[in-house]
Design a protein that fits this description.
The complex is a heterodimer of chains A (291) and B (529). Chain A contains 14 helices and no strands. Chain A is mainly α and 291 residues long. Chain B has a 5-stranded mixed β-sheet. In chain B, strands 8-11-7-12 form a 4-stranded mixed β-sheet. A 3-stranded mixed β-sheet of chain B has the order 13-17-18, with helices on one face. In chain B, helix 16 packs antiparallel against helix 17 (492-518). The longest helix of chain B has 30 residues, at 2-31. Chain B folds into 2 domains: 46-160 and 334-417, 3-Layer(aba) Sandwich (D-Maltodextrin-Binding Protein, domain 2), CATH 3.40.190.10; 166-332 and 425-525, Periplasmic binding protein-like II (D-Maltodextrin-Binding Protein, domain 2, 3-Layer(aba) Sandwich). Chain B is built from 17 helices and 18 strands. Chain B has helices at residues 2-31, 64-73, 87-96, 111-118, 126-129, 133-136, 140-144, 171-177, 185-197, 248-262, 275-283, 299-308, 349-362, 376-381, 433-448, 462-484, 492-518; strands at 46-54, 75-83, 103-106, 147-148, 151-152, 155-158, 166-170, 209-211, 232-235, 241-243, 287-292, 314-316, 328-330, 335-341, 389-392, 395-398, 450-453, 523-525. In chain B, 40% of the residues lie in helices and 15% in strands. Classes of the chains: A mainly alpha (291), B alpha/beta (529). At the A-B interface, helix 2, helix 5, helix 6, helix 11 and helix 12 of A face helix 1, strand 2, helix 3, helix 11 and helix 12 of B.
Chain lengths: 291, 529
Amino acid sequence: MRDKSIGNLVLDTVNYILLALIAAAMLFPFLYVFSVSFSSYKDFLQSDILLVPKTWVMDAYRFILSSPAFPRSLLVTVYVTILGTVVNLFFTSTFAYVLSRPVIGQRVMLFLVLFTMLFSAGMIPTYLVVKETGLLNTIWALILPVAIAPFNLIVMRQFFMGIPSEMNEAARIDGATELQTFWKIILPLSKPALAAFGLFYAVGHWNNYFSAILYLNDPAKWTVQVILRQIVIVNEPTSTLAGGAALMENAPPAETIQMAAILLSILPIILVYPFLQKHFAKGVMLGSVKG
Amino acid sequence: MNKKKTLAVSLAAVMALTTAACSSSKPEGSAAPAPSGGGNAANKKFTVSMMSFAFGNLPPADGRGVKMINEKFNIDYKPTLVVQSDYIQKLSATIASGEVPDITVMEGADANFYKWAKQGAFLPLNDYIEKYPSFKLIPKDVLKAFTVNGKIYAIPRYYPINYQLTAMIRTDWLENLGLKMPTNYEELKQVALAFTKNDPDKNGKNDTYGIAMAQNINPNYAMGAYWDFTAWYHKNKDGQLIPGSISDAQKEKVAWMADLYKQGAITQDFAVMNWAQTNKEFYSGKAGIFIGTPRGMSEPYMQSLVEAVPNAKLAPVPPFVAPDGTQGFASTSGAYGMTMFSAKLAKEPEKIDRIMEMMDFGRKYYKPEEMNKSNPDFDWFKGNEGTGYKIVNGNIASEPAEKGLSPALYYPDGIAWAPNDEANGYSKTYSTPLLVNVAQQFEKLHKETKHYFNPVNSVFSETKQSKDSDLNKMLYDEQTKMIVGQRPLSDWDKMVKDYMDKGGAQIIKEVNDAMKEAGVEGRWKEPGQ
């Protein structure tokens, strides 16, 4: 008995140490980004690695916030994320609800959804669709083409199917229409699902940069990820002929500025995370067990 | 069984539907962007679309600069600037959608350029080259790189043809150790080792080393065209030119680097270090040898070196005498960036004239002393003194791009085509004294040195376009392994054979054939040419 608990104690200690080490490894990049962003460029150049800034300076932040581009792009991103998530949830939940009810043509609809999961159009066909529908250079181009994620739709349908059909029947007896049933009975029961998928969608919108680059021509409409990419990533030039030249002249901004930009662009979504964490965890189990 | 059947049927139905949709939408798409031509007067306003890549913060689509361009050239200018990192994808999508912008800018003549040129997306420019002063200045050899089947499809953007990136050394360290400027690789090795072992900064700590290097053996420290990785200088036994990357001279250089690496005189983590990190090695005062050039040096980097080592001194390393008696660097391609015009413009000659006039204006050359408001054209182009730019200590300080104040920001090609490299006066554009000084030394060095005209820059090879970057990556990787000692140097011939088998032989054949056809060959240019 006693032996076992000593064994347990040792095991626990080892476990905790290991987990603490892993956690430290995860935290290290954040700490590094944080410290570099508050350091002076000179300190950064002079030291091998910075875990705590030698002198605390706000130069990098002042530089980023001195031009309207970054704050504006943050606002655009918040706007796209909120609007996009509302659109996502509306279309996904309504469609999923229809698919969870015994309606005519359900199999065909479901097949069409599954089809897009297996075969998706490439960049250029999608671009043509966006262009012909007149969405080019509007922020709707970031929202409508991804209004429904098929995987989320199917999981949400599964969730709706888990709600006993007696609920619907009871509502019907009390005189509710289909719409009222959905709005007043089903949706309130599905709050955890909505929160989880809302977060999935929101993170997707927040991190999305490629459609913004592809579909938006006006820098005033750019999202923060585009600006961030512009600040942090400078590709090796495609032509090797004068490649060296481009490398010299278009050196990316100082690392302190890069790190500050990274921090500013993840901050809002990190602040949202803790509040939605519990729903996220619940969301993982959605549809896994049928009630 | 039954399920499978339904699936197959509905799949077929979906396929049929999508193909039908595709084919029916096609003619519509190509008919839509036809502009309403037919105006006659010379003062007709044209809408001109432009697509280009850019670095850093971008100007707004409707800035003051655009309005100035619209007024001056009587056009409705629609520039689209895209982040450089994803530009090619966006351009591909735009061109595939059938809307080739009136003006298209690319970084270099890559496979896409040749594909689109052959498909007839761009306007042949042969008739316009002689008409505009800044186009006339482009050397014939440079234009050849943008010629497909005898037709010139692009106007190259200026890059100084002789200002290669070459080695630069901390002369204060040389003085501290009582060493001379190296004149061959053996002496350079001794210097690099002394920088590593003999405490050149006299701080009593073993915290310095010789040569800063980044991944892909960059810079490749070619102390002359003979050793240049990218120059086609050496010939094989059949008399064909071969790339420097597989030459015996490169093999010797790799052996030289391997030796230095083993003794700690080259950046130890170079295989995984990017360009910015390697710059940090040199400009923080850790490494003593790096590269420099008159144009495009970074002021913040140099300032950080001055702060770290207030009495730092720098000088370029002159080219070494090669075993074949030559002495001089390889020249560059003479262009970085290129501008194409939509083939659809052929129907509107007046619009072409208007666009070319605008294009030519941006490439106009100004003497350094004219670069202020005394020259109205320059003043206009930079957005007027006091608004678009300021003169600080005799240098031009432009307002941030995102304010969009000057026409230059929106130009497809806003780099003056200078009559020769020196005429640019690049050294005068810096403000850090150390940087001004070393840039002047580089200018003097290049002015007095012969340069090898690298013929591969003037020809096109299909296989080279499609395979060169992969093959080069392979060569970089294998040679990196040899430098760090993971692979013996005796494997060199095996590596070259691998290169040949994977497409290198075909590239060499195509490039040599193309050179014969275009009548270009490698040659030494006299100093100053």
